[in-house]
Amino acid sequence: GTRCHYALGYGTRCHYALGYGTRCHYALGYGTRCHYALGYGTRCHYTLGYGTRCHYALGYGTRCLYTLGYGTRCHYALGYGTSCLYALGYGTRCLYALGYGTRCNYTLGSGSVITCHESLMTILVWAKV
User: Fold this and answer.
1) Phi then psi for 27, rounded to 5 degrees?
2) Is the distance from CB of 21 to CB of 59 less than 8 angstroms?
3) Which residues contact residue 19 at a Cβ distance below 8 angstroms, ignoring those fewer than 6 apart?
4) What pTM was estimated for this model as a whole?
């Protein structure tokens, strides 16, 4: 399999693996990393800035993970039985489950819960820890 390595500037690295099960790694700037896996069961990982991480899994059972800022997490599961998790701010969590038969649950502050049901399944959970 073909391999190519690039070193661009201070601390910048890029790796290409071309062929069956293609892999690509990008390191752009200080502490920034990006990983691409192209082919069957495609995976992509992004690290943007200090403590920020993003993961993409493209293909059957697609999953995406976003980490935006300090302690902030976001998860996307795209495909059959879609689920999404959002963590926004310190101790705040949100869960989305998208599918058949909508359900929504809100937990706001200390012990507050709101639940709703709709035709298309959506589970929304806010948890302030």
Assistant:
1) -120, 110
2) no
3) 1, 2
4) 0.17
Query: Residue ranges per domain, the chain?
Result: 2-91
**What is the CB-side half-sphere exposure of residue 62 using CA atoms within 13 A?**
11
Cα–Cα distances in angstroms (integers) from residue 16 to residues 34, 43, 47, 105, in the given order: 12, 14, 17, 44
For the stretch 37-77, pLDDT in tens is 433 333 444 443 333 334 433 333 333 343 333 333 344 43
pLDDT band at 27 (very low <50, low <70, confident <90, very high): very low
Give residue for tokens 């691409």: 36
Q: Which two tokens stand for residue 96?
A: 């989305």
